[in-house]
Design brief:
The chain is mostly helical and 281 residues long. The chain has a two-stranded antiparallel sheet.
């Protein structure tokens, strides 16, 4: 009897969490999927066919994929450099890198986007400096294009990539590095044979995390793209809240959700859930 009472007590204590998940996530998700199947002509897959055949939608998806892949590769490369110095650098280097990584978390994405717009626009700080030093004669097109969007997104995402890479580097025993150096291995040999393999889980986690975040970017492309670089999140907003095309917007949202879930499952499959949790810690 006591065992049964304890089981019911445990079940009642655990019940609020799945109830919250159903009410806050599963029911809205089911509503979005239902919208994606509804078209002006009735229930069907017309919205998904439009995504596959409409040249405008296809071009937006390809642009989003191109920008996200480029931003992910650049962000992870910069993040590995910062994480390496955060792990193996001198005390003053560690402080500088740590401050540089943490400060962006205290600023909203909107503030950062407008700050980059002030820097990159035609009469911004970057062009003004380059023209005053005689390096360029005419202002460079650094904003309201894909380059400006990529710069703003990379600045936002690098800190998120630093953390998992730094965590994986922290788990590497210093004695391995010292042993490789005592055997005559240089920096690149030690990096290729020790650091890269042992930190691969952190790099993979950072890559997938950054790519997932980049897929849903809205504010930065809207500000730095100036309406010329529309990515899928902004296009979903336009379809739902300006054109009232809820079906197409919901279908694009469903596709993004499937991509995110597939990436997370691939990460768990390749890295392993236990190793992934160790990296996150």
């Amino acid at each position: 009897m006591a065992t049964r009472d304890a089981s019911w007590l445990g079940f009642s204590l655990a019940l609020p969490l799945p109830t919250l998940l159903v009410l806050a996530y599963l029911l809205p998700l089911a509503g979005v999927l239902a919208w994606s199947m509804s078209t002006p002509g009735g229930i069907g897959f017309g919205n998904y066919r439009q995504i596959a055949t409409d040249p405008l939608v296809v071009s937006i998806l390809l642009r989003t994929l191109r920008i996200c892949v480029a931003v992910t590769l650049i962000s992870v490369a910069i993040a590995y450099f910062l994480a390496y110095h955060l792990r193996f650098g001198s005390p003053w280097k560690k402080r500088v890198v740590l401050i540089g990584v943490l400060i962006p978390f205290w600023l909203s994405s909107l503030i950062r986007a407008f700050a980059w717009l002030m820097i990159l626009r035609a009469n911004g700080l970057a062009n003004t400096f380059l023209q005053s030093t005689g390096m360029i004669a005419e202002p460079l097109a650094l904003a309201r294009n894909e380059l400006g969007v990529m710069i703003g997104m990379t600045h936002f995402l690098v800190p998120y990539a630093v953390l998992p890479i730094f965590s994986s580097l922290q788990h590497i025993d210093n004695r391995l590095i010292q042993a490789s150096r005592s055997l005559g291995a240089g920096f690149w040999r030690g990096f290729k044979d020790i650091l890269a393999p042992l930190s691969s889980s952190g790099v993979l986690a950072a890559t997938i995390i950054v790519f997932i975040f980049s897929l849903g970017f809205f504010v930065t492309p809207a500000v730095l793209g100036g309406g010329r670089v529309v990515m899928v999140a902004e296009y979903i907003y336009l379809q739902m809240f300006q054109l009232s095309n809820w079906g197409l917007g919901a279908a694009l949202s469903g596709i993004l959700m499937v991509v995110v879930v597939a990436l997370m499952l691939a990460l768990i499959k390749i890295v392993g859930i236990r190793r992934l949790m160790d990296t996150a810690s």
